[in-house]
Amino acid sequence: MLAVSSAIAAAVVLHPSPVGHSAPLSPRLVFSSRRAGECARMQLGDRVTWFPPIDISRPEEPPSDGATVMPLFPLGATYLPYTNPVLNIFEPRYRKMFNDILFSGARRFMVTNVDQDTGRMAEVGVVFYLDELKEVSEQTQDRVKYIGQHSVIGRVRLLKVLNPDASATRETYLRAEVAPLEDRDDEDSETVAAAEAATQKLFLDIVDTQASLGEEPRFTQAVKNGLSFSKGSGPEDKGLWGTIVLWQQFLESRTQVMGQKMQREIQKGVVEFLKDNKIQEDLVSPRGEIRLEDLPAPLLQEHCRGRSLNQ
Questions:
Q1: What separation in angstroms does the CA of 280 have from each of 34, 166, 271, 289, 295?
Q2: Which residues contact 157 (CB under 8 A, 6 or more apart)?
Q3: How far apart are alpha carbons 156 and 43 in whole angstroms?
Q4: 57-77 pLDDT, tens per residue?
Q5: Cys staple from 156: which of 178, 200, 206, 274, with CB 3.0 to 4.6 Å?
C-alpha cells in the first residue's frame, strides 16, 4: 500500500483553488442528493457487464459439484488487483462474514461493484484476502466492529448467487459461485507490443498536454519513468494495473477539484438568482444550507447545461 501511495503522490500534482466566501444572503449548498449524481456521476451502463437482477424469492440452493464458492460483498466502489484496501465493518451480516472466514481459514471473499440506479452487481469483481483484522468495537461504542486490511489478489467472474433471499432479509451475507479470471499473455506478441506502445504514447501525450495547458490537477513529468503497460505479476510488479491505479487516483483528484469549482459556480449563480428571485425558506436549513436537488429548476438546469459543455 505504501508503494502505491508513494507513486501516486509523486505522479499527481493537486492545486485546488481556494473556495470563495459565501455571500451573506446566499444559502450554503450541500452536495448530497440524487440530482447531484445525475449531473456529476459517470455513466457506466455501456462499459460494465452487469449480472442479471437476482430473484430474492428464489430459495437457497447448494453449490454445484466442484464449484468455487465465496462470500459476496457488494460495494459501491471499484477495486483493482494488487492494491490494499481497508474496510470498516459494522453491519451484523458482515461481522458474521468476517467471523466465518476467520474460522474457516479461507480469509477471502469476492467484492463487486453495484449499479447505483438499479442495484445490479457487476459480473466481474475482485478477491479480497484478509491480511489483518482489528477489533475496534470498544473504541467506537460498537458502531464499527472491525477494521480489516486486505490485499486484492485476483479477479473472479460471478456465476451464481446461492442465497438470493439474503439480499432482502439482510440476516446473513450473500454466497456465490465464482470462476477465476487470469491475466494471460496473448499468443500474438507483436500485436500486444504494438498496443502497449500505442497506449504508452497516448498516456505520455496526456502528461505533456496537461503540462502545456497548466491543467489542475495534473501528472508530473516524473510519472513517465514509472509507467508500465505490460501484464503484471504481483504487488512488486503491478504492470498495467499499477498504471490504472494512477489513473484512477488522478480521476478522484480531478473530481475533487471540479467539485470545488462546481460549488463556487453554483454559489455565484445562487447569488445572481437571489437578486431577482426568492428561494423557499423551508428549503433552507437552520444552518443556512440547501441541497442541490432543492435548487430552483431554472438554476439547476443551467448548472447541468454548463457542466455538459465543460466535460
A1: 20, 43, 15, 12, 10
A2: 123, 124, 178, 179, 180, 181
A3: 23
A4: 999 999 999 999 999 999 989
A5: 178
